[in-house]
Write a structure and sequence with these properties.
Elements: H1 2-26, H2 35-38, H3 50-61, H4 65-73, H5 79-105, H6 111-119, H7 121-154, H8 158-174, H9 181-205, H10 229-233, H11 242-251, H12 260-285, H13 289-348, H14 355-373, H15 378-381, H16 384-405, H17 411-430, H18 439-460
Helix pairs in contact: 1-5, 1-12, 3-9, 3-11, 3-12, 4-12, 4-13, 5-11, 5-12, 5-16, 5-17, 6-7, 6-16, 7-8, 7-13, 7-14, 7-16, 8-13, 8-14, 9-12, 9-13, 11-13, 12-13, 13-14, 16-17, 17-18
């Protein structure tokens, strides 16, 4: 219990101490108008209360990510908790803060344009492709998973549920953000928090030994190495590039920059706490990685969620577990499609105030999404973790470039960007889906790539510029 309490305390204290430091380095300005107030269109640019923005942002970035990823990460043992805590504070929350605040300073720009303004045309184009692929993949997967579960629970064909979920996605993508997302998401966000913290309290009072094995060594039953796999496996809760596609949505709704730390950095810390809960539950409820692995082999993380929730919270817990496994992925899927529409709208410079112009973009997106549901994309999905963390790495480099050009303390972004460059490069070089090189060789290439990126940034972007928000490529 003490380990969990210390980790949770560090995360909460980190929000106030390190999060405050990041906010001061960036220079949030409460007197500076935000796009929510200067560009209101009643559709995507809609001022919301800071509390509502926080809860919507939390659910946008979370879904099942801080549940399933940490459950799989629990196989590695207690060291997973350290990655969640320090990854969240120094990488993930910083990443989410800058992806949101740079969007605000850029007039609500989507992540490809935020990155492109800071790193140039090549990265703008790369991020458009990477973001759209990632968003479509998330959207489609989060149709099929809930549809299959609903089909099993109700006896209604999964194909019918696919159509129903796509219908909801279409409405959530087309309607003004405050009509469905702004109203329902705060409730679901509160449910996510209640479920996580209700379970950890129930675990404590159940008499179960919390984190029975204290070690920093990998406990993975299959002998998988910590480096770099754990840093890819646990994304949501530590650092996730998907978040950068979501932050600009709330950047268009935040009424004042002084709430940026709460809305962006704070939502990521909230997700880190949820991830911490589920990693602890995975390690404690089954008492050994082998026992956890056996349940995962039988029914995946969904079965783990159901067993833990039903055992600790009874029938109500079982109901919430099933509800969560159905609702939470849907709440990530709909915002994935909405973000994809906004990215395309920015690319084509197409105002989204008129319904017909939203249809121009939404219909092709959903046609492509439906086609993908008919294709076996298991191979593509294996690249998701790599693509997700690569996107996060690029956003961190963009933040570092902004800090350098504005003569700010760059290392809050440069250090995590360098580390994540080593992670994703090593993974690509070593993984069977990549080049399959021996781990020592792959690690050497990863470290070299990180060092080269760091040097390139320091040598290539040392030019002063006016502090007017988004950067122009030199």
């Amino acid at each position: 219990m003490l380990v969990f309490v210390v980790c949770a305390t560090v995360l909460i204290a980190g929000y106030f101490i390190y999060g405050g430091f990041v906010d001061r380095v960036f220079g949030s300005d409460s007197e500076r108008p935000t796009p929510a107030t200067t560009m209101q269109d009643g559709v995507d640019y809609v001022p919301m209360s800071p509390r509502k923005v926080y809860l919507v942002q939390l659910l946008n970035i979370a879904g099942l990510g801080p549940i399933f990823g940490p459950i799989l990460g629990a196989l590695y043992g207690p060291i997973a908790l350290l990655w969640i805590v320090f990854g969240c504070l120094f990488a993930g929350a910083t990443h989410d803060y800058f992806s949101g605040m740079l969007s605000i300073r850029g007039g609500g720009k989507s992540v490809p344009d935020v990155v492109g303004d800071n790193l140039g045309t090549f990265f703008r184009s790369l991020m458009r492709v990477l973001s759209l692929v990632l968003l479509l993949l998330v959207g489609v997967v989060f149709v099929l998973g809930p549809a299959k579960l609903l089909g099993a629970q109700t006896g209604v064909a999964a194909a019918i549920w696919v159509a129903c979920i796509f219908g909801y996605y279409f409405l959530a993508t087309m309607l003004p953000i405050d009509k469905i997302i702004g109203r329902a998401y705060p409730v679901f966000g509160a449910l996510l928090l209640f479920m996580a913290f209700g379970l950890i309290v129930a675990l404590f009072v159940s008499g179960t030994t919390v984190i029975p094995t204290l070690t920093l060594e990998s406990l993975h039953p299959k002998g998988l190495p910590l480096w770099p796999l754990m840093f890819i496996t646990i994304a949501c809760g530590a650092v996730s590039g998907f978040h950068a596609t979501q932050s600009p949505m709330m950047a268009r709704c935040l009424p004042n920059e002084r709430y940026g730390r709460f809305a962006f950095y704070g939502a990521m810390v909230g997700e880190g706490l949820i991830a911490l809960v589920w990693a602890t539950l995975g390690m404690s409820f089954y008492q050994s990685p082998e026992a956890l692995q056996a349940v995962l082999a039988e029914g995946g993380p969904g079965l783990v969620v159901n067993q833990i929730s039903t055992s600790l919270l009874g029938v109500t817990g079982g109901f919430l577990a099933v509800l969560g496994v159905i609702v939470l992925p849907i709440t990530s899927g709909d915002t994935a499609f909405r973000s994809a529409r906004l990215i395309l709208a920015d690319f084509f410079s197409l105002s989204q105030k008129a319904v017909i112009k939203r249809l121009y973009l939404a219909i092709p997106l959903f046609v492509v999404g439906f086609v993908v549901t008919q294709v076996e994309f298991g191979i593509i999905w294996r690249y998701f973790g790599f693509a997700n963390q690569t996107l996060a790495t690029i956003v961190l480099w963009a933040a570092a470039a902004w800090l350098i050009r504005n003569d700010r303390f760059q290392w809050i972004a440069t250090v995590p960007a360098t580390f994540m460059t080593a992670v994703v490069t090593t993974y690509l070089m070593n993984a069977p889906i990549g080049f399959g090189l021996p781990l020592p060789v792959a690690s050497g290439i990863g470290v070299a790539a990180a060092a080269a990126s760091l040097i390139a940034l320091q040598l290539g972007l040392r030019r002063p510029r006016p502090s007017t928000g988004a950067l122009a490529h030199p």
